[in-house]
Each structure stands twice: as structure tokens, then as C-alpha cells.
Amino acid sequence: NFMLTQPHSVSDFPGRTATISCTRSSGSIASTYVQWYQQRPGSAPTTLIYENNQRPSGVPDRFSGSIDRSSNSASLTISGLKTDDEADYYCQSYDINNHAWVFGGGTKLTV
Amino acid sequence: VQLLESGGGLVQPGGSLRVSCAASGFTFTNYAMNWVRQAPGKGLEWVSVIRDSGDSTYYADSVKGRFTISRDNSKNTVYLQMNNLRVEDTAVYYCAKWSLAAAGAFGYFEYWGQGTLVTVSS
């Protein structure tokens, strides 16, 4: 089993760029794809990024994803921050050995 | 795509409950379906998945042996039967469509319902 660790909170100003990290505790971050989900208060999650860096149709290109093998982590970058981006963000990956889907603990973004 | 959960409510510890998810707006028989839960004020936790045909299922360790996922492709509905419920099972239960027929290393939680609240308390 592995865990995905995210910072509890991130904050920045409108127009700036925020980055949220997601560090895998064991095994390579590159071994299975990483997804990112946004959850606004009182709402269900929605998909922002899949397969490390792919955006579903309708997701603005202000949102981008990447992985870094050296730090064994994934990152979600949000450029041109808007107050509407205030939400919880979750990373997620797949545990091949246990056939289970793992979520990070979530990061609260304040703009 | 619409996913409409129902069946949540208050149940005593040790009790049982079945939640349902009625799907529409896509070809239900072509996709795996999941249940993901969120305890009050906490993060997301994957619970269970069933593939398109219904003949393959997987569970989180926390619910294995107590919960059963099933689907009725004639009714476009997926179910989660929850037995021997514990206080720590209290959560909003979300139904989530997988992007492929079988859930595994490929694909992602493509669409989510609005959830149904299950409260386990005496």
C-alpha cells in the first residue's frame, strides 16, 4: 500500500500561479497515472486532470498537471488564479498490488 | 450524464442499508461504476468498483466482507449493499462513472453524482 500526501492548504492572490504537490510514499509516481479532482464547497468532485497531464474537454488550460520522478511527486498548477478557484483539490492514483484507488488527503486552496 | 444516488439515511451500528445510483445520459452497459465516500469534513475514500458486465468487483479493505456492489444493466442502476455498519462508515456516498469498461491502471473517475448521506449512529 502507498499513500499520497498533499499540503493541507495553499493560498495565493488572484492572477498569481499556485502549485499543489502530491507525494507518493512508496513505489514510483510514474508507475501509475495521477488524476486531479476539484471539489467546491457543498458540491461533488469534478475531474481536472487525468493521466498525469490530460485535461477533459471543458477544463481551462489554466489547469495543468505534471509528475517529477526525482521527488516522486505529482503537481497541479493553476495559473491566473481566480476567486472561483477556491476549492479542495485531490490527487488520486491506482495501487496495482491491491487493486485499489488511492486519494490524497486533499488541499484547500484559498484565493 | 446524470448520476442520481438515493437510499441514504440514519441506521444503527450493526444495521444494514442499500444505496442506489440511477444513471442516464450514457450507455451504462459500457462502463465500470464506483462508489466513493467522504466522511464529514474529511477527504475522499474509494469504496468499491464493478466492471461493465458486473462479473468483476473490488473493495477497499475497510469495507471488504461487509459491503457488496452490484448493478442491474436493465435498469441502468448500481447498488451498494452495506451490512454490519459501523459509526466510521458515516459519510456521503458518491456514485462515480469510470471512463472505461474496466477500472484499473487506466481511466479515471469521469463523472460524479451529488451523493447520498449515510449516518450510522445509535
Helix content of chain A: under 10%
Which structural class matches the secondary elements of chain A? mainly beta
- In the predicted model, the low-confidence regions of chain B spanning at least 5 consecutive residues are none
Strand pairing plus helix content of chain B: what structural class?
mainly beta
Q: Give the strand content of chain A.
A: over 45%
Determine the number of helices of chain B (DSSP H or I, runs of at least 4 residues).
Answer: 0
Q: Which sequence of SSEs, written as H and E, runs from N to C of chain A?
A: EEEEEEEEEE
The quaternary structure here is heterodimer
Order of helices and strands of chain B: EEEEEEEEEEE
Stretches of chain A where pLDDT falls below 50 for ≥5 residues? Answer: none
Tell me the overall shape of chain B. Answer: globular
Which chain pair has the greatest contact?
A-B, 27 and 23 residues
Tell me the span between the first and last alpha carbons of chain A: 34 Å
Contiguous helical run count of chain A = 0
Specify Rg of chain B, calculated over alpha carbons.
13 Å
The count of DSSP E runs of length 2 or more, i.e. the number of strands of chain A, is 10
Largest sheet of chain A: 6 strands, mixed
Mean pLDDT rating of chain A: 97
Which of globular, elongated, flat, extended, rod-shaped describes the shape of chain A? Answer: globular
Q: What fraction, in percent, of the residue positions of chain B are helical?
A: under 10%
